[in-house]
Specification:
alpha+beta; Thermophilic metalloprotease-like; 5-stranded antiparallel beta sheet; 11 helices; about 35% helix; globular
Length: about 375
């Protein structure tokens, strides 16, 4: 018997997050291990009158690709993926890793080459999303790998995850509509301001957001969700920031990361672990050393780091900054083959001040 919370998650994604309509196409990318959720999404899509298209991968194919593919194969993008980026009405990526370190030994230059090959299509997806022509979402199917990274049993992790998605509620769709109100309120409050000043342990950073738009992340693009975000003015970041939670990108983890910015650019970067990989990613292209996103977490139902950015960047009382590609709908114009979020925790002593007015103190909103 399928876990009823999986049914609830599928209903939330199809009917609330993506609002699928009759005749629309829905591209579902997932690992085969997430079959219960993929099946539930498939069925709920059919009930909505939309047309599901499945893109499933098997355990071990990602590492096999980087081990065996030629440069020409790394540069090749399948016609199915091209169609999904350019023509699908909606798409979802279901994270379902069975080994979160599967790509840890892949040469960084091969990962960078693949990111550059995919960049034009990712850029097209963001442009279509900003124009309202494409709706997308990222969610997760609980596996032992995610549970182990979070220091939980699989049962504990499932309870935690579905609770964070509000799938323990009698009507998850109604619960998300209610939860969205606070995130929308905060995004509306900060809209139209100019300077964001973040202070905390090892952090004193100023960003200009004049003319940029803050978007409430209310379950439409990620599930679970809970943040409001923008693209800072590209040459505005000044100061230092310390990231307190480990950050994973392309299967590689770095920890203890510190950046120093001048004129919007990372001019000094260090890490306690994974520093060589960090520098290699920052050197991917010109835009990789500039900020594409400032996000402020609002989900206080996620309290501790889990090792998965989909969850960790939503933690209420944290700020995340992403180097690389901007989201066009925010007004950001930074371009890069990467978009890498890293998390600064302000809950044990820190503040966010906006044009001199306190927005958050020690991880709690005060406006």
């Amino acid at each position: 018997m399928r876990d009823p919370r999986i049914e609830g998650l599928a209903k939330v994604i199809v009917n609330y997050s993506l609002e699928l309509k009759e005749g629309q196409t829905f591209f579902i990318t997932s690992g085969a291990v997430a079959e219960p959720l993929v099946q539930a999404l498939y069925e709920e899509t059919l009930r909505a009158g939309a047309n599901p298209v499945l893109d499933l991968s098997l355990e071990g194919t990602a590492s096999a690709f980087f081990d065996l593919a030629s440069d020409e194969q790394i540069d090749w993008v399948s016609p199915a993926q091209q169609w999904a980026f350019e023509s699908a009405d909606a798409r979802i990526r279901v994270l379902s890793d069975t080994n979160v370190r599967e790509l840890s030994n892949v040469a960084p230059e091969r990962q960078t080459r693949r990111q550059k090959a995919m960049h034009p299509y990712m850029q097209k997806m963001m442009e279509r999303s900003a124009a309202g022509d494409l709706r997308w979402n990222v969610t997760l199917f609980p596996t032992n790998a995610y549970a182990a990274a979070a220091g939980m049993s699989l049962r504990e992790y499932e309870d935690f995850y579905y609770r964070a998605c509000l799938c323990d509620q009698p009507d998850p769709v109604a619960a998300w509509k209610q939860a969205a109100a606070e995130t929308i309120r905060l995004a509306e409050w900060i809209e139209g301001h100019e300077e964001v000043h973040i202070q905390g342990p090892g952090t004193d950073l100023k960003l200009n957001v004049a003319g940029r738009h803050f978007k409430p992340a209310d379950g439409k693009y990620n599930m679970p969700d809970g943040e409001f975000f923008t693209g800072p003015v590209e040459d505005s970041a000044e100061g230092e920031v310390t990231f307190h939670l480990p950050a994973t990108y392309a299967g590689r983890e770095v920890a203890g990361v510190r950046f120093r910015f001048e004129d919007g650019k990372v001019v000094d970067a260090t890490a306690e672990r994974g520093e060589d990989f960090l520098i290699e990613m920052l050197d991917t292209d010109e835009g990789a050393r500039r900020l594409g996103e400032l996000g402020i977490g609002t989900n206080f139902g996620i309290a501790d780091g889990t090792g998965e950015i989909l969850l960790d960047e939503k933690i209420g009382g944290t700020v995340h900054l992403a180097v690389g590609e901007s989201y066009p709908e925010t007004g950001g114009v930074n371009e890069s083959a990467i978009h890498w979020d890293m998390i600064c925790d302000l809950r044990k002593g820190g503040s966010i001040t906006v044009d001199g007015e306190l927005l958050q103190q020690d991880g709690r909103f005060v406006v």
